[in-house]
Amino acid sequence: MPRNAVSRGLPDFPWDSLAGAKAKAQSHPDGIVNLSVGTPVDPVAPLIRDALASVSQVPGYPTTHGEPALREAAVAALARRYGVTGIDPVAVLPAIGTKEMIAWMPTLLGLGAGDLVVIPEVAYPTYEVGALMAGCRVLRADGLTRLGPERPELIFINSPSNPTGKVLGIDHLRKVVDFARSRNAIVVSDECYLGLTWEAEAASILDPRVCDGDHTNLLAVHSLSKTSNLASYRAGFVTGDPALVAELLEVRKHAGMIVPYPVQAAMTAALGDDDHENEQRERYRKRREILLDAVRRAGFTVDNSEAGLYLWLTREEACRDTVDWFADRGILVAPGDFYGPGSRRHVRMALTETDERIAAAASRL
Ligand SMILES: Cc1ncc(COP(=O)(O)O)c(C=O)c1O
Hints:
365 residues, alpha/beta, Aspartate Aminotransferase, domain 1, 2 domains, 7-stranded mixed beta sheet, globular, EC 2.6.1.17, aminotransferase, Succinyldiaminopimelate transaminase
């Protein structure tokens, strides 16, 4: 163990604590339905695989900044899919999946001891991890009044949210931008689930209705893992404030944080095509309807969950008891306490199983 092991300053890896429930769910005679992690199960679209294969013979180093075609495809996709305009392709930077970009963001932006990072009250764990890796203080706050006179360096937001599926409206996002501008904070908006909305419209932080076309101090992080089933490829990007993106690029060039060339080609194809994305969204929509109906019939209350890849459920009991109840039925879900101290009475149910497994889960409920 190194003298100052970094891992000692980080939370326990939460999934390890699910081993018992997983073993129980696996012992179900008809097999486990794993709705815990939220990993894609549907195959990668042929046009993306072909793009990857088409350059698999190329031996040279890829660029950290990414091929111009990839950056242009990202700009076009953001405009076409989400109405985000005014991005120069130079302000797009590929990520080796967005988890690493989020985890390293405070460090790459030069934050350190004493700096404050604000994260959502119920949050994807990597925001806190990223802040802790940089030695920053962490404050969980959804409302800006909670911040009082604090002057955060960086604010992570996530709409649609993992795990709650909550969408922040345009007014809320505008307030975040105004607040950040007034205190010179950077806003990093994790937009992993922007393409998966069911009952609410979700807007990017770079949407002109939110930021009036001014991207200063704003970064949007986009993953292709869920919308294009590319979790295995590790594919995402960040864009927004050109000065911040240039700084991230400079540091990442030195640190060797480079997206492999064949993955860049795959991303370019994925960002250029909306059909596979629409098909995938429709698959999730159907699975969501089946699960939503089943959990409601089983007596659960579904909170938020208007977008994203998860249902956020409660039966007003300790979340670990609910996890056990599902495990008895061969279904594995994630306890709310993974996502913050304020969510001990919810569980998160992912929509990411095959149609056959989703039907099995519904019939067991
Ligand atoms: C909110 C959120 N952000 C980022 C990620 C990271 O995705 P990836 O590293 O696959 O791009 C996830 C993955 O589940 C997520 O839920």
